[in-house]
Design a protein that fits this description.
The structure is a homodimer of 447-residue chains. Chain A has an eight-stranded mixed β-sheet, with helices on both faces. In chain A, strands 3-2-9-5-6-7-8-4 form an eight-stranded mixed β-sheet, with helices on both faces. By secondary structure, chain A is an alpha/beta fold. Chain A folds into two domains: 280 residues, 3-Layer(aba) Sandwich (Aminopeptidase), CATH 3.40.630.10; 151 residues, Glucose Oxidase, domain 1, CATH 3.50.30.30. The first copy, chain A, has 13 helices and 16 strands. Chain A is 37% helix and 26% strand.
């Protein structure tokens, strides 16, 4: 034995430890039951909502139950958008012929409601170039953006990034030319008709007009209809920005034995859109974070560095929790060596993406053989997440993001079908296995 | 350009061709619509059932529509098992106290029904070792096998292989000691309560006794109950083996331009269990096979070798279609260079497994960079499938099997929830993309 190179012994130790982690989580993991609690007893929990408060309480109590050395709420100011009563969009006329067909529609997050019914003709455009070409026709109309995904992208996240600009900026781009409302094709390639909400923002230079997303079936039929016909639609939404209110990051800690003042952060976001239960987005990241805490405590792992488990506030429509966490860390002059986020759905884990320097990446990539037996196939460049991004900006902290299989994510993302029933227990737990293993390796070897 | 090594030019050509395949399938693929037809208009299609006949007709017509150079039915004798009216299992007594709790149960495929209600005490055993230790207690009882998956296996297929012996052999192993019936825990780790059927077989040396599978929730509760109590259950099943009947493999061909007498086979099985629609098992393999045909024809690919698209009969409870296909090939002295099967669910593709010699495997593994952009992470040793296995036994034909992500498969496998709604369009199409790409490479370069 004593002739074996040191790294072989270390790798054996590590593979034994990771097998212990995996066996314990797959047999005794609580993430699935915790997710049921979060989604079924609390549900959607947008910043400022009563459910946000319930979720914070639940998160704090759960961290205590799981044996965190310390746990507390970190106050932050959050925006408070409410949808109000039901969004109603309908086709009223086709070529001046009266009709009435309700479309599956949902107001975009942070959008200002029409408050009363608007009726207007539609200008349907393929993209912003198309809008610019036809800007003379926009005034007084409702603009429809056919913001479809490029289905030839193998990674749906790429398509989401490409099309996301229509949801984020489409309203003001159209308001600039006098539009009275906008509609987009939901950012999805689902085969159903649930509309997908998500955050948008106004450019203050132009009027704030209402904005909705249509379900994919209705959107595709609508786009075809608009090609040949003059269409008039009615639109009624009730969205309001109420005054900012108070929310909290929920934080648990395990104290480091060697470097108690050096932090590793792991987290997901506790808030979720109001249309559903926020199961994959980001209930799964929340309960995986809690699962890592549970597993490390049960296995009696004494980390060298302090590990922070953070359920971030307000990722969806403000990222104020993320900003607060980094600002507090800065104010206290904390040292943050690594942060890991899970916010891409609770599907089968396939990799981690990293934002770190080349030396750190080399170090991490050498661990691939240890993670491969648990389904990780790549440790790649680029990754992190919006809740840990500010740590990197503040301190240059190295970041990692769990990369689950992404094919199903946009079927349910921000839509009414993002529910507990669409999460698979083993896929969820396997994500937590790999997250725990990565945290273990980074804590043990540093970065 | 002319200075580039030949293999670089070839790889560029290949990557361009595979991108064309991928774009066409992801944009224009018909697999999802075909799956809807097969599952929703035909449904479960066990060998010998009227739906088997409908599915064969549908398969043949679809191959013609997709432009196969030739298409035909290949007759084979198939077994004809029928479940009969509903399976009923209930707890009747707990420690002599009368009760009545119906359990979610389904007779195992090919099992002989009790025809009338049996009431007997239960002997619950963990495994065959436990049964052997307690063989003196078996006589007159219904044996329950707690055939749970080892959840610490990362690949559920491994757990299925390990536990499958209780479904296949459990009845006769218990009948040997005088059991009057057997029940197993469904071969699944689902969180729901659907019972999972699947094929079993009797050892002719012992009485043929009825056999059922329990849904996981009921099975787990039942196992706990049996630990502390004397339990009596009633069991009523109606399964019957009718006389063998006629089924067909459905075969389409594209004629080879250089080696028309050398065959590449690609297929899935057309039959499926009666409890559901056979969506993932193996509707997805069927429609992926048809998708490969569609894509090659649309892209006007002229293969060097003849390509056969085969929808195999009777995989589930006999594999007579597979045997017939190999026997016919043998009778005609055909040369079969490769066969590919998709029968592990229509989930995100992650690899292919191969049964072939080392030189062939080296050749295939060199193509990994061409497939990786489409989600394939491993081209590994071991794989094929029960429908192409006989070709390997007959001719030593090299085999490949699509390896999709396997975490969800046993949630729906052989159970009432194996329905169209549980198949994701993009995951299904991505499987077909990689199957088409692999067939293209093998046809172009040979093996």
């Amino acid at each position: 034995m004593f002739l074996l190179p040191v790294f072989v012994i270390a790798q054996n130790e590590d593979s034994i430890m990771i097998k212990k982690i995996s066996d314990d989580i797959l047999k005794n993991g609580k993430a699935y039951d915790l997710l049921r609690q979060l989604t079924k007893t609390i549900g959607g929990r947008l910043a400022g909502s009563p459910q946000m408060v319930q979720a914070e309480k639940w998160g704090l109590e759960t961290m205590q139950l799981l044996g965190a050395d310390a746990s507390y709420l970190q106050e932050c100011v959050v925006p408070h958008w409410v949808r109000g009563k039901g969004d109603v969009v309908a086709i009223k006329k086709i070529n001046n012929k009266t009709t009435s067909k309700t479309l599956a529609a949902a107001a975009l997050g942070n959008s200002i409601g029409s408050q009363k019914t608007i009726v207007a003709n539609v200008l349907a455009v393929a993209d912003f170039d198309d809008l610019e070409k036809r800007k003379a026709e926009v005034k007084g109309k409702i603009v429809y953006y056919n913001s479809g995904f490029d289905v030839t992208n193998i990674r749906p996240f790429k398509s989401y990034s490409e099309s996301g600009i229509y949801r984020r900026n489409g309203a003001s781009r159209a308001a600039k030319y006098g539009a009275v409302g906008v509609m987009i094709r939901s950012l999805s390639e689902s085969t159903d008709n649930f509309p997908h909400t998500g955050v948008m923002a106004y450019n203050d230079s132009f009027p704030k007009i209402p904005a909705v997303a249509l379900g994919i079936q209705d959107a595709d039929a609508f786009w075809q209809l608009c090609k040949q016909n003059t269409i008039s639609v009615s639109l009624l939404t009730h969205g309001k920005m109420l005054p900012d209110t108070i929310g909290h990051n929920v934080i648990g800690e395990i104290k480091g034995t060697e470097f108690p003042n050096e932090y590793i952060t792991i987290g997901g976001h506790l808030d979720s859109w109001d249309l559903a239960e926020g199961a994959h987005d980001d209930g799964t990241g929340v309960v995986q974070t809690l699962e890592v805490l549970r597993a490390l405590k049960v296995l009696n792992y004494q980390p060298k560095h302090s590990i922070r488990f953070v359920l971030f506030a307000n990722e969806e429509n403000g990222t104020r929790g993320a900003e607060k966490y980094a600002a507090e860390a800065k104010a206290k002059n904390e040292k943050h060596i690594f942060a890991l986020e899970s916010d891409a759905g609770g599907f089968t884990p396939r990799g981690f993406g990293f934002t770190m320097n080349a030396a750190q990446l080399n170090k991490v990539q050498a661990w691939l053989p240890l993670l491969r037996p648990y389904g990780i196939e790549q440790l790649s460049v680029g990754g992190g997440g919006s809740d840990i991004g500010p740590l990197n900006q503040q301190f240059g902290t190295a970041l990692g993001g769990l990369m689950p299989d992404g094919q199903r994510y946009f079927d349910i993302h921000h839509a009414a079908n993002d529910v507990f029933e669409n999460v698979n227990k083993r896929e969820l737990l396997l994500g937590a296995v790999n997250m725990t293993a990565l945290i273990y390796l980074i804590d043990k070897y540093g970065l």
